[in-house]
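Page 37, continued from 36.
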């Protein structure tokens, strides 16, 4: 029975791979090796793969620097003075945003601090920031620091929420009412992979007069976003996960045009956010650019953006609808394999058990599946590694695996599910 079910799943995976409209993009990336063999890379949720051609792209910038020196800002093949501008056009479709609402700059946490300076405006009555209890630590540090810089007590101003169920979040927002100043949540929870209903959360927060921002580190390039239509006030992200920008790559910022087109929206100012028409005249009075570019502090870190440029061009070539549909289909197929192979009753005794932290509802998950291992989880993770599967371990007991549409196959999904289910059974709550 087990052998027959396994064979059918494998055939299904191979058929899906043959008919995959995105399969040609696999050739556009480099894959890590272990003991001379290419690994099955399932860690796009942490660091995406390196796009091919990066050495040539870097060499071009080096060549232009060597040839032109400072004049490379205007004479380089890709002039540095407005190097950042092309990223707005490339990122906007991934965000569901207008080009004017998106800019590539800084790191995620720096951008979060900049956004908080604009959108956290506490009063005696309205001062609470709602966040998830399992938020990424850097977000928590940023929230606490901005509260302290306002001379307020984080214990009174920061409210965490455990359940990310939409109804629970909305009820909490409604209960807080006019005490709520800001909602900051991860669009996709980094730990569990759960996708939040950003549209409904934003609507509920606006109904009580609060601003809404999202950390999209695990969302952008993973799930469809419609930030403008949802009326999200701001969002921040890094680009080294699903966007394949490389370690420490330049992040991004979304500012809804309702705020970005208003030059009176408060912000921390820098010279690159100043009106580009008079920027080099160095006037003493700051005159912000319209849109998200008005939040820029400094000129673009060209060398830090090269890999992201190559990767975003791949997204542009691909049909974004097909990318997101394949991501959803791959995680659904992963679950199908686990359903078929992971039942305790049909397999031999196994050493491990796993609980799935990621929701089964396809609307509430993207590429990532998170497995909570009952005992000796690190040992199981190392078993996967030795078999050539590169995933992600999170203390104290979670394995995260993320099949990515542009470079993973259904057969790879089947293979990792097969090994996982040989070693562990699905322990349902």
């Amino acid at each position: 029975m087990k052998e027959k079910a396994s064979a059918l799943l494998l055939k299904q995976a191979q058929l899906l791979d043959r008919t995959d409209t995105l399969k040609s993009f696999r050739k556009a990336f480099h894959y890590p090796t272990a003991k001379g063999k290419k690994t099955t890379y399932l860690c796009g949720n942490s660091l995406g793969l390196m796009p091919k051609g990066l050495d040539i792209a870097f060499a071009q910038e080096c060549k232009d620097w060597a040839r032109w020196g400072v004049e490379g800002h205007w004479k380089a093949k890709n002039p540095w003075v407005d190097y950042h501008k092309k990223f707005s056009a490339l990122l906007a479709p991934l965000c569901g945003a207008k080009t004017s609402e998106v800019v590539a700059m800084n790191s995620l946490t720096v951008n979060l601090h900049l956004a908080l300076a604009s959108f956290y405006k506490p009063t005696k009555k309205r001062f609470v920031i709602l966040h998830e209890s399992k938020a990424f630590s850097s977000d928590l540090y940023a929230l606490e620091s901005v509260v302290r810089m306002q001379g307020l007590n984080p214990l009174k101003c920061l409210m965490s929420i455990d359940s990310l169920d939409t109804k629970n979040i909305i009820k909490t927002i409604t209960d807080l009412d006019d005490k709520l100043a800001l909602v900051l949540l991860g669009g996709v929870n980094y730990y569990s992979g759960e996708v939040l209903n950003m549209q409904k959360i934003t609507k509920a927060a606006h109904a009580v007069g609060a601003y809404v921002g999202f950390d999209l580190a695990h969302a952008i390039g993973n799930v469809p976003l419609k930030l403008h239509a949802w009326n999200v006030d701001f969002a921040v992200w890094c680009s080294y996960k699903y966007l394949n920008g490389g370690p420490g790559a330049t992040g991004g910022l979304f500012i809804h045009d309702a705020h970005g087109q208003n030059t009176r929206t408060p912000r921390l100012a820098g010279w690159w956010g100043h009106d580009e028409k008079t920027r080099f005249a160095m006037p003493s009075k700051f005159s912000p650019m319209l849109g998200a570019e008005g939040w820029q502090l400094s000129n673009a870190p060209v060398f830090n953006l090269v890999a992201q440029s190559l990767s975003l061009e791949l997204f542009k070539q691909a049909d974004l609808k097909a990318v997101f549909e394949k991501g959803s289909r791959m995680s659904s197929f992963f679950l199908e394999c686990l359903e078929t192979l992971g039942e305790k009753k049909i397999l031999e005794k196994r050493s491990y058990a796993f609980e799935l932290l990621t929701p089964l509802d396809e609307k509430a998950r993207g590429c990532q599946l998170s497995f909570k291992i009952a005992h000796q989880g690190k040992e199981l993770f190392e078993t996967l590694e030795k078999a050539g599967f590169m995933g992600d371990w999170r203390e104290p007991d979670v394995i995260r695996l993320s099949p990515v549409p542009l470079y993973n196959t259904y057969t790879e999904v089947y293979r990792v599910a097969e090994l996982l289910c040989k070693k562990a059974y699905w322990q349902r709550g």
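DSSP finds 15 helices and 16 strands in the chain. Flag for discussion at group meeting. The chain has two domains: 2-30+319-426, 56-316.
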